[in-house]
């Protein structure tokens, strides 16, 4: 399977890195990237062909992944409008709706919306997928194969749910990194040096996530097991509750989801 990325920035690099690590042949992966520095990085890091514009060789692919910023996508696909034949086009752009992307591509509807996340770089991503009704089973399978190479995948029943996936898991790594930053800073405030506080914070999140992933129990049950009555964890959790932590998370995720919808509506007017 030949895969071309239109846009070779952070997320494309995470996906390309993941694909190559998972055994995809670098010769079957290409990237179209405006920045010379970006192209040089992709070529040297992953050994893939990186070009400035979508030439015939780059267009001759089975899956074309649109990996530019939502605000850049309409202009980026303009040169290929009406030139697509059988390629499965997978947009990973936040918010943008298939109906608008299809229009910008010159009424082309072999389209899949996917929302991956950056842990794809280490094969630990999670991607939500939604396909236009006209995409064949083989087309869906091709799109899924690309994303499944870098982590797990879930199909959603309605396109609007991709904005929810974006809010929970697309943006989610940033929330977890932020929590790690805060836990590290809290450790430093107790007198640990930076390296020690960082290790305590990261290894805790890593271990807890692994335990939650491996366990049949709900995260709430695992939380209760850490929480001795009248103990230290109970004191911390009472403080979290008093500060409204669950509502803070719910509001933040809702803000991300609303922003996705807003981006789709705003940019789709073009
Ligand atoms: N960063 C993340 O964690 C995630 C990002 N996304 C989505 O992935 C897309 C890309 O995001 P990032 O990689 O973070 O952005 P980025 O800015 O790092 O990458 C976009 C790249 O596209 C290039 N580009 C822009 N116009 C171009 C054109 N006409 N032809 C060729 N290259 C062009 C830019 O030079 C840039 O390197 C966005 O739509 C975003 O919503 C999706 C999931 C997670
Ligand atoms: O922040 C963003 O808009 C993108 C989408 C998901 C992660 N990064």
TrEMBL record:
Task: Tell me what organism the protein belongs to.
Answer: Zoogloea oleivorans
Quick check: keyword Transit peptide in the entry? Answer: no
GO cellular component terms, semicolon-separated: cytoplasm
The pathway that the record names for this protein is: Amino-acid biosynthesis; L-proline biosynthesis; L-proline from L-glutamate 5-semialdehyde: step 1/1
Gene name?
A: proC
Enzyme Commission identifier(s): 1.5.1.2
The protein's name in its UniProt record: Pyrroline-5-carboxylate reductase
Pfam (any one): F420_oxidored
Q: Which family, according to UniProt?
A: Belongs to the pyrroline-5-carboxylate reductase family.
According to its UniProt entry, the protein's GO biological process terms are: L-proline biosynthetic process
| InterPro entries assigned | 6-PGluconate_DH-like_C_sf, NAD(P)-bd_dom_sf, P5C_Rdtase_cat_N, P5CR_dimer, Pyrroline-COOH_reductase
Keywords per UniProt: Amino-acid biosynthesis, Cytoplasm, NADP, Oxidoreductase, Proline biosynthesis
* Residue ranges of domain Pyrroline-5-carboxylate reductase dimerisation in the record: 159-263
């Amino acid at each position: 399977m030949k895969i071309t990325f239109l846009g070779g920035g952070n997320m494309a690099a995470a996906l390309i890195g993941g694909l190559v690590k998972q055994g995809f042949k670098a010769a079957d992966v290409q990237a179209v990237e405006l920045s010379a520095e970006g192209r040089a990085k992709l070529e040297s890091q992953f050994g893939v062909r990186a070009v400035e514009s979508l030439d015939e060789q780059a267009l001759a692919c089975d899956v074309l992944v649109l990996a530019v910023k939502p605000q850049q996508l309409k202009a980026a696909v303009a040169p290929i409008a009406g030139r697509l034949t059988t390629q499965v086009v997978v947009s990973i752009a936040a918010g943008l709706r298939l109906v608008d992307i299809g229009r910008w591509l010159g009424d082309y509807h072999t389209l899949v919306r996917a929302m991956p996340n950056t842990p794809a770089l280490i094969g630990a991503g999670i991607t939500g997928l939604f396909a236009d009704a006209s995409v064949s089973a083989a087309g869906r399978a091709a799109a899924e194969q690309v994303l499944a190479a870098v982590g797990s995948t879930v199909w959603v029943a309605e396109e609007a749910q991709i904005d929810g996936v974006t809010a929970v898991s697309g943006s989610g790594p940033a929330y977890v990194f932020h929590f790690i930053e805060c836990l590290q800073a809290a450790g430093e405030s107790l007198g640990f040096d930076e390296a020690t506080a960082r290790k305590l914070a990261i290894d805790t999140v890593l271990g807890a996530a692994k335990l939650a992933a491996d366990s049949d129990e709900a995260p709430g049950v695992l939380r209760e097991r850490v929480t001795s009555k009248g103990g230290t964890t109970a004191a911390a959790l009472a403080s979290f509750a008093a500060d409204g932590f669950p509502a803070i998370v719910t509001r933040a995720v809702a803000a991300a989801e609303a922003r996705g919808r807003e981006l789709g509506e705003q940019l789709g007017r073009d």
